[in-house]
Request: fold
Amino acid sequence: MPEINQNYNLLQKSYLFTDIAHKVAAYKKANPDHRVISLGIGDVTKPLVPAVIEALHAAVDEMGTAEHFHGYGPEQGYSFLREAVVREYMARGVSIAPDEVFIGDGAKSDIGNFQELLSADAVVAITDPVYPVYVDSNVMAGRAGAPLAGGGFERLVYLPCVRENNFVPDFPAKAPDIVYICSPNNPTGTVLDRDALTAWVRYARKHNCLILFDAAYEAFITDKDIPHSIYEIEGAQDVAVEFRSYSKLAGFTGLRCSATMVPHSLKVGDGRGGRVELNGLWNRRQCTKYNGCPYIVQRAAQAVHSKVGKSQVMKQVAGYLENAKALREGMAALGLEVYGGVNAPYIWVRTPNGMDSWGLFDHLLTKAQLVCTPGAGFGKSGEGYVRLTAFGTPEDTAEAIERLKGLSL
Ligand SMILES: *Cc1c(COP(=O)(O)O)cnc(C)c1O
Reply:
């Protein structure tokens, strides 16, 4: 009888969203006349913009003609899209070559898959609280070690991001081989500024550490001084891979498209005393296990980079950011400490009076019929906070703010 990959036995079940669903269902059953509003959704709600829909229709029509039919495409993505990504970087003063850009079907898969290029004994650092994909993909690869009784894993290095350090991870006592950084951050909604990013790039260069930089929320940055890419920091191309996604930028959560940047100058040990480019390895991995993002989806993504498309998607992003601002202000008016929500669609609220994450969750559900996400579900350092998302409709968000007004804590 075949046996499973034993690493899968080490995965910790996440009960977070099922626990939330159960509590909400029980509340609705007991209070059928109360309308519950979710501020917990991690998916976008606005439809695809007209420029994207037009590009999709045109590409579908092409696929129905013998001259313009597209079969297997390049595993790395079509050059029209890779070049559009390159131009996006150029506009921010970053020079990256088309063959350093890999188009994928989403940042979740790219991030989840990328770790397999690194050795199983590499030491991984993650920020805490964290996007669970970084952790679980390394558990599956056998890199995380045994689960610990109080949560977490033996071999992972946890970098707390809390109000006490301004949500900027401190350097670990011993340098890890790999560090995951997400800015703007999910779940905290906070960003790393130029100084913080520069310090991490220097650290990585000094200690030969690989940074896996998740820029999925780059489009939500409103402060002019916050870098949109880690490559805006000098020397980052020697130490960092960057992941981008069209999901939150342009509502591609159902369409699926991403871009992963692997600069040629980024080299790691080959295990035989030499150094090797990760670019070639990622290319080999993708060519072996992936047949490319659909042609029609890449045409749709190309439209996001057009002048018209960009202005349409940035209007949607601005709409979500208005929700974020309203939620921030609504929470702050209750006397709560509020973080994030300026350069990100997430608001991270500190629980009052030593209440725990689930305590505030229950309070918001039963007193205002609002659903949030308890921070403890994102890691130990998330305890004492809850996450609100700005991805709801403006109507629901406005109603949520109204309900907050009458709330006592
Ligand atoms: C939503 C999200 C992504 C993007 O995932 P896709 O697979 O591209 O939809 C990546 N990283 C984080 C932290 C996210 O929240």
Q: What stands out?
A: The radius of gyration is 22 Å. The chain has a mean pLDDT of 96. The CA atoms of residues 30 and 117 lie 51 Å apart. DSSP finds twelve helices and 15 strands in the chain.
